């Protein structure tokens, strides 16, 4: 074997070794449900920027066996999650004459951070068999901004704070036909320490715009100057369509209606209809 052949073999080995050492470990970045790597956990890089963190868990398997409800038992709701899919706004804008007073589809401007997740609550059953779902806290609000077809932007606080939803009739178990309806509280979009571009605020800032102190009491500026922190009300319907008796999981569709933000009373609220899917897990409460 001549020297030229020996040098060629050595170069081939070196290039192969360098390629093997420098190639990235792509298997570690594959999702855990990949058929090639079934035991690999999803890493932070897999979730970052993908929108997976904004999705509610999916109940893939559904059984025909209902989840029994005992009137003598207390229940807890865990991992309750609501994922919006549509934001419809009822607008009376003069630029939308054909759709005036109707709900119109809007464009979501908020990034993928509008899902309510890790909400906890209780499921109570009274002596007559009516089931009531009561929200107790968690990540139960998200600031959202949508845009109407005419370009107007509508901010709202998507929330289910203080949720109380009840079945319309007595039931003994939770099935794919179970429906709950109720109401919740809608706090203002911003906190009381927020000040507007003219320096006016509810708890801090000026009482009126600095440039027009003489006209501060004019009716045209009354709402902008006299801000108020009011909690409004919203309504919601939860329709269960899947249950899993062995795990206590349930999922379905929801539709809620709530007012948009009023900027502490300086604007007229619009009615926003939110449609999407929900997920939750019920288990007996340990007292």
Describe this structure in words.
The chain is built from 3 helices and 14 strands. With 287 residues, the protein is mainly beta. The chain has an 8-stranded antiparallel beta barrel. Strands 4-7-8 form a 3-stranded antiparallel beta sheet, with no helix packed on it. It has a two-stranded antiparallel sheet with strand order 1-10. The longest helix has 20 residues, at 3-22. It is flat. The termini are far apart. Residues 19-39 have low confidence and may be disordered.
Mean pLDDT: 81
DSSP summary: helix tally = 3
Distance between the termini: 84 Å
Largest sheet descriptor? 8 strands, antiparallel, barrel
User: What structural class do the secondary elements suggest?
Assistant: mainly beta
Identify low-pLDDT runs. Answer: 19-39
Q: How are the strands of the largest sheet arranged?
A: 2-5-6-9-11-12-13-14
Count of distinct strands: 14
Strand content: 35-45%
C-alpha-based Rg, rounded: 27 Å
Give the CA-based shape: flat
- Estimate the helix proportion, in percent: under 10%
Order of helices and strands: HHEEEEEEEEEEEHEEE
Brief write-up:
The chain is mainly beta and 287 residues long. The chain has helices spanning 3-22, 44-47, 222-225; strands at 67-68, 75-90, 103-105, 107-108, 116-125, 131-139, 141-147, 153-159, 161-166, 173-174, 179-186, 232-244, 249-259, 271-284.
């Amino acid at each position: 074997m001549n020297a030229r052949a020996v040098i060629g073999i050595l170069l081939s080995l070196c290039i192969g070794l360098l390629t093997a050492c420098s190639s990235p470990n792509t298997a570690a970045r594959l999702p855990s449900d990949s058929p090639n790597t079934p035991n690999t956990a999803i890493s932070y890089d897999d979730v970052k920027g993908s929108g997976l963190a904004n999705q509610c868990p999916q109940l893939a398997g559904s059984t025909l066996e209902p989840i029994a409800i005992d009137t003598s038992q207390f229940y807890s709701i865990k991992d309750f999650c609501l994922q919006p899919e549509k934001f419809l706004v009822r607008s009376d804008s003069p630029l939308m004459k054909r759709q005036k007073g109707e709900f119109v589809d809007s464009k979501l401007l908020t990034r993928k951070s509008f899902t309510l997740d890790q909400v906890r609550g209780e499921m109570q059953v009274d002596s007559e068999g009516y089931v009531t779902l009561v929200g107790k806290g968690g990540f139960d609000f998200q600031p959202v901004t949508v845009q109407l077809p005419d370009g107007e932007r509508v901010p709202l606080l998507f929330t289910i704070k203080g949720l109380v939803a009840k079945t319309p009739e007595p039931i003994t178990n939770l099935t794919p036909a179970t429906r709950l309806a109720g109401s919740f509280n809608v706090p203002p979009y911003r906190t009381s320490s927020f000040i507007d571009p003219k320096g006016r605020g509810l708890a801090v800032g000026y009482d009126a715009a600095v440039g027009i102190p003489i006209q501060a009491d004019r009716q045209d500026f009354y709402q902008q100057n006299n801000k108020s922190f009011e909690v409004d009300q919203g309504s919601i319907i939860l329709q269960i369509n899947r249950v899993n008796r062995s795990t206590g999981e349930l999922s379905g569709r929801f539709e809620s209606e709530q007012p948009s933000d009023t900027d502490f009373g300086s604007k007229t609220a619009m009615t926003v209809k939110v449609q999407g899917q929900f997920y939750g897990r019920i288990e007996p409460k340990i007292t």
